[in-house]
Write a structure and sequence with these properties.
four-stranded parallel β-sheet; alpha/beta; 318 residues; eleven-stranded mixed β-sheet; binds threonylcarbamoyladenylate; binds magnesium ion
Length: 318
C-alpha cells in the first residue's frame, strides 16, 4: 500500500492544522484507543453531514460525540447518579454513554439523528486528547471506515477506505484496544448494554450488578447495530475447527496455530486478539482471501465484543 499524502505524523503544527480544518467544517481522522474516528465539529450541521456522506452512512444512525472531560460532557447532556459513577470510573476510556440532550444543547441534531439523547465519550488516546484540547470543539466521530466495512485500527486503513474524502489523517500508530467503545444507555432501573466493546460487561457489573442486554423489545436501542457490518470483501465462516481448501484461517490459541494464516493470539489472550482482529481482516482482504474461517473465540470478557463483530462480519450482506 502506498503512503497517503494526507497521513500526518503528530506534531504541534499538525494539531494546529487539524484544528483549523475542523473549524472550517472539514473532516479530520484521528486515533482513539479503540479505533480511528472520522471527526468533525459536532455543532456544525454541514460538517456533520459530510461525515454521513464520506462514510455512506444511513442518516438514521447517530454519531458519538467526543469531549475532553466530564465537565464538558455536562454542558451537552444530563447526568444522573449512575452516569456520574460510570464516568468517574471509566473516563477517559472506551465507554460511551447515551444520555438525554440538555435543552440548550448546541450539538447538531443531525449528529444524534434527531433523537432526544446523545452518545458521548471521553477518549483516552493521548493524541485524541491533545486534538480535543487544541481545537476546543466537541467532535462527532464514527469509526473512520466506509459504512458496513472493517473499522480502522491504523492510519493506513483510513487512507485505504476513505482516500481523499478526508482532509487529514492524524497518525497515532496502532489503536491499543482495537474494537469500538462499549455503548450503554439507562432505563428507570438498569444500565442497558447497547453495544459490547472495549469495556467488558464484567467490568460494568462491578458497579451495577444488573446490566441488561438490549433486545428488540428494549425501550432504548442502538439504531446503528446493523446485522451486516465490519465485513471484509469475502465471506466469513465462524467457529471453524479446520481449514477448507482456498480458505484463510484466523486462529486463536495454540490449538489452531499450525493451520492459521494469522493467529489472533497464540497464547489465547483475548485483549491481544481484540487488538489484532480488524488489522487481520484488513490484511487478509488485501491479500485477496477467497473466504476467511475463524476459530472459536470464548464468549467471555472481551470475547463478547469480538464475537459480536464476527457475527456481523459473517452475516448475509445487503
Ligand atoms: O470506539 C468508538 O466508539 C469509535 C471511536 C471513533 O470513538 N466510534 C464509533 O462510532 O464506533 P460509530 O458511529 O461507528 O458507532 C456509534 C454507535 C452506533 O451503534 C450508534 O447507533 C450508537 O453508537 N449511538 C449513537 N448515538 C446514539 C443514541 N443517541 N442512542 C443510541 N445509540 C446511539
Ligand atoms: Mg463503526
Amino acid at each position: 500500500m502506498s503512503a497517503s499524502k494526507s497521513i500526518i505524523p503528530p506534531s504541534s503544527t499538525a494539531l494546529e492544522r487539524a484544528s483549523d480544518l475542523l473549524h472550517n467544517g472539514e473532516l479530520v481522522a484521528f486515533p482513539t484507543e479503540t479505533v480511528y474516528g472520522l471527526g468533525a465539529d459536532a455543532m456544525h450541521d454541514k460538517a456533520v453531514a459530510k461525515i454521513f456522506e464520506a462514510k455512506g452512512r444511513p442518516s438514521f444512525n447517530p454519531l458519538i460525540i467526543h469531549v475532553p472531560d466530564m465537565e464538558t460532557a455536562k454542558q451537552y447532556v444530563i447526568f444522573d447518579e449512575r452516569a456520574e459513577i460510570l464516568g468517574r470510573v471509566f473516563w477517559p476510556g472506551a465507554l460511551t454513554m447515551v444520555l438525554p440532550r440538555r435543552k440548550d444543547c448546541p450539538i447538531s441534531k443531525l449528529a444524534s439523528a434527531g433523537l432526544e439523547t446523545l452518545a458521548i465519550r471521553v477518549p483516552a488516546n493521548p493524541l485524541a486528547r491533545q486534538l480535543l484540547q487544541v481545537c476546543r470543539l466537541p467532535l462527532a466521530a464514527p469509526s473512520a471506515n466506509p459504512s458496513g466495512q472493517i473499522s480502522p485500527t491504523q492510519a493506513a486503513h483510513v487512507a485505504t477506505g476513505l482516500g481523499d474524502r478526508v482532509s487529514m489523517i492524524l497518525d497515532g500508530g496502532t489503536c491499543t484496544i482495537g474494537v469500538e467503545s462499549t455503548v450503554v444507555g439507562f432505563d428507570e432501573e438498569n444500565v442497558i448494554l447497547l453495544r459490547p466493546g472495549g469495556i467488558t460487561k464484567e467490568q460494568l457489573e462491578v458497579h451495577f450488578p444488573n446490566v441488561q442486554e438490549a433486545n428488540e423489545e428494549s425501550e432504548i436501542s442502538s439504531p446503528g447495530m446493523l446485522l451486516s457490518h465490519y465485513a471484509p470483501s469475502c465471506p466469513v465462516r465462524l467457529n471453524a475447527t479446520d481449514k477448507h481448501k482456498n480458505e484463510a484461517f484466523l486462529g486463536f490459541g495454540r490449538e489452531y496455530d499450525k493451520i492459521s494464516t494469522i493467529n489472533l493470539s497464540v497464547s489465547g489472550d483475548l485483549s491481544e486478539a481484540t487488538a489484532n482482529l480488524f488489522s487481520a481482516f484488513h490484511l487478509l482482504d488485501e491479500q485477496g482471501a477467497k473466504q476467511i474461517a475463524v476459530a472459536p473465540i470464548p464468549n467471555i470478557g472481551l470475547g463478547v465484543a469480538i464475537n459480536d463483530r464476527l457475527k456481523r462480519a459473517a452475516a448475509p450482506r445487503p
